[in-house]
Amino acid sequence: MLRRCPGRIKARFCQNPLVHWFRSRLDIVSVVEAAKADRRSLGRACFLAGAMFLGNAGSFAAHAEDDAFYEIETKYLFGFTIGSGIGLEGEKEISAQTVGQFGKRDGTYDAWEHTLEFEYTPSQYVQIELEALAQSHFIRDVTGLDDRDQTKFSGFATEFRYLLLGRGPGEPVSITLSVEPEYSRVDDVSGERVRDMSFETRFALDAELIPNRLFAGFNLLYVPEILRTADFTWERATNLGILAALSYRLVPTVVVGAEVEYYRHYDALNLSAFEGDALYVGPTLYWQLTRKSFIQVAWSAQVAGHAVGEPGGLNLDEFSRYKAKLKYAYEF
Predict the structure, then answer these.
(1) Do the beta carbons of residue 131 and residue 157 sit within 8 Å?
(2) What is the Rg, in whole angstroms, of the alpha carbon atoms belonging to the chain?
């Protein structure tokens, strides 16, 4: 809601040059006398009064529009790309998020990761997240994977975010570094029972290209992973990612955009065994329900990729054909 101080409006109104001219020459008495003496004087007074009104109306409308597009946190504006925002000091947030992976080379493949999160910002530079995880899989007739229809609690994760560079007057860029150790007992691709430890490191940068209206986001992602299968076989892998997004605020509560994601998969911690890559493109939506709650939606399709030793223009061994994300959050 736009709120204006009556005193401030009065001061702004009185500073208009037309007002000073009008006051000095056309007070109530002079207007009446001018009307009696000469109709042209009354016409000129009416014209000046109308011009003064329109000029102030335009000024008020411009300031109202500026105030309507209030400052907004950028962390969840982009979709799979994460913004650099960490919220206000002392702020807390709970959220529910689901990320889906769909489609392999054959058969039916649906995999979902469900996350219940609690965020807390103890200082203006640090944010902490605690996450409880669950996995759902529906797999039928996919080469290399067992048929499966299950939903299981899978593990926990903790994320630590540190604000390296904050946005401020004359500084439209903000940078955050985050680390997220995660333990899971369900493989996110196959749904098999495993013991999986990963350590995601993310460099997040975003820029305000037009104040409170147009935003750009950029991420660098490094995720080493160690996994033990049910037959006590140890596997090691690394995923690298580069993500970029652009989002535009159509109205104060709705932000739409698009993003590009590029990932590389290695079957080793030292990046010596390249297995394939994938490129995703898709739209994003951020909807501010209230000042304290929002919904985030993203969808991406793999448009290019390559798996080592496999034909075709997509990598459907390490990655899925489509991705989707849905998140609801409430701040308090």
Answers:
(1) yes
(2) 28
Domains contained in the chain, number: 2
- Residue identified by tokens 């892998």 is 237
Residue 327 makes CB contacts below 8 A (sequence gap 6+) with: 76, 95, 96, 97, 98, 295, 296, 297
pTM of structure: 0.80
232 and 111, same structural domain?
yes
Q: Which residue has 């509560």 as its token pair? A: 253
DSSP 83: P
Residue 215 burial (CB count, 10 A): 24
Q: Where are the alpha helices (DSSP H) in the chain?
A: 6-14, 17-25, 28-37, 39-68
Q: For tokens 């054909």, what's the residue?
A: 321
Q: How many CA atoms lie within 13 A of 280 on its CB side?
A: 31
Distance of alpha carbon 257 from alpha carbon 249, whole angstroms: 9
Strands (E), 187-320: 193-210, 214-228, 234-251, 254-266, 274-290, 293-307
Biggest alpha carbon–alpha carbon distance for the chain:
106
Q: Which distant-in-sequence residues (6+ apart) come within 8 Å of 319 by Cβ?
A: 263, 265, 276, 278, 302, 305
Query: Domain range holding 181?
Result: 92-331
Decide if 53 contacts 85 (C-beta within 8 A). Answer: no
Q: Examine the fold and report which residue of 68, 103, 120 is the final residue of a domain before the chain moves on.
A: 68
pLDDT tens figures, 123-141? 999 999 999 999 999 999 9
pLDDT tens column, 48-94: 445 544 444 444 444 444 458 888 999 999 999 999 999 899 999 99
Bridge partner list, 292? none
Q: Locate 30 and state its tokens.
A: 């002079």
CA–CA separation, 298 and 284 (whole Å): 4
Q: Which amino acid is at 216?
A: A
- Alpha-carbon distances, residue 182 vs 117, 154, 158, 179, 318 (angstroms): 13, 10, 7, 10, 19
Residues 62 and 28 in one domain: yes
